[in-house]
Specification:
Layout (H helix, E strand, L loop, with lengths): L14 E5 L7 E7 L2 E10 L13 E8 L11 H4 L4 H15 L11 E10 L4 H22 L12 E9 L2 E4 L3 H5 L1 E10 L4 E7 L7 H26 L11
Parallel strand pairs: 4-5
Antiparallel strand pairs: 1-2, 2-3, 3-5, 6-7, 6-8, 8-9
Helix pairs in contact: 2-3, 3-5
The structure holds uridine-5'-diphosphate (UDP).
Family: Belongs to the RNase PH family.
Organism: Romboutsia weinsteinii
Catalytic activity: ITP + H2O = IMP + diphosphate + H(+); dITP + H2O = dIMP + diphosphate + H(+); tRNA(n+1) + phosphate = tRNA(n) + a ribonucleoside 5'-diphosphate; XTP + H2O = XMP + diphosphate + H(+)
Length: 248
């Protein structure tokens, strides 16, 4: 059965990363993965949470939100309900962990980098697009700190990106759109570095448990997708792509 948009099973959607998308944040990106669109900003704050005070170490925190009309049906703003739902909590923690996994926090001094991912249009894979876009925004923000001599060395050890994979109608496929995601028997988010190592794998066989062979196949697709994404991140960072990695 042909995929929506006639994509091959190992093909990601058209991707576009626009840097410096908004004016005020130190790093700001619009990432588009097909019809999924997320604005990711990285903001530097010159203080850390209480548990890190006087430690010389910094922190990276992430927040995630979907605009009310980013989805088919209007979604009530969490701020007007007064509480953050479980899905949002899970996603923002995932984004924070992914970005922290590639940054040496002791090299950013006592600063917090706030990552804000705001989904303006959702068509599946919003958490993975958030991670891929957030990395570029954070790289820009950290690069600015470095250029202003606020930090002595680049603290970024690796690129990090993320993509969804899944099993839909018994077929393993890469980068599910909403329609595919909602009929998937297995879905998985694969977060990887440019060295081909895994940062996190979130997989659920809610509709049907999956085998080791399925897992291997899905991880292979995840690898293919992340390799393409990291190339796109490099392309978006242009002349600073080689400068953002630290020496060790
Ligand atoms: N979605 C939605 N409303 C919601 C949550 C999700 O319309 O409250 C849609 C949206 O297109 C999203 C997709 O369902 O991208 C898959 O959601 P999931 O929770 O799996 O997260 P995602 O794939 O976006 O990371």
């Amino acid at each position: 059965m042909a995929r929506i948009g006639n994509r091959k099973n190992d093909e990601i959607r058209d991707i576009k990363i626009t840097r410096n998308y908004t004016r005020y944040a130190e790093g700001s990106v619009l990432i588009e993965m097909g019809e999924t669109k997320v604005i990711c900003t990285a903001s530097i704050e010159d203080k850390v949470p209480p548990f890190l005070r006087n430690s010389g170490t910094g922190w990276i925190n992430a927040e995630y939100s979907m605009l009310p009309r980013s989805t088919h049906q209007r979604k009530i703003r969490e701020s007007s309900r007064g509480k953050i739902d479980g899905r949002t909590q899970e996603i923002q923690r995932l984004i924070g962990r992914a970005i922290r996994s590639v940054v040496s926090l002791d090299k950013i001094g006592e600063r917090t980098i706030w990552v804000d991912c705001d989904v303006i249009q959702a068509d599946g894979g919003t958490r993975t697009a958030s991670i891929t876009g957030a990395f570029v925004a954070v790289a820009d923000a950290i690069h600015k700190l470095y250029k202003s001599k606020a930090i002595k060395e680049m603290p970024i050890r690796n690129f990090v990106s993320a993509i969804s994979v899944g099993i839909v109608n018994k077929t393993h496929m890469l980068d599910l759109c909403y329609e595919e995601d909602s009929s998937a028997q297995v879905d998985m988010n694969v977060i990887m570095t440019d060295s081909g190592e895994f940062v996190e794998v979130q997989g659920t066989g809610e509709e049907r448990p999956f085998s080791r062979d399925d897992l291997n196949e899905l991880l292979k697709l995840g690898e293919i997708g992340n390799q393409v994404l990291i190339k796109e991140q490099r392309k978006a960072l242009g002349e600073i792509a080689d400068e953002i990695l630290g020496v060790d």
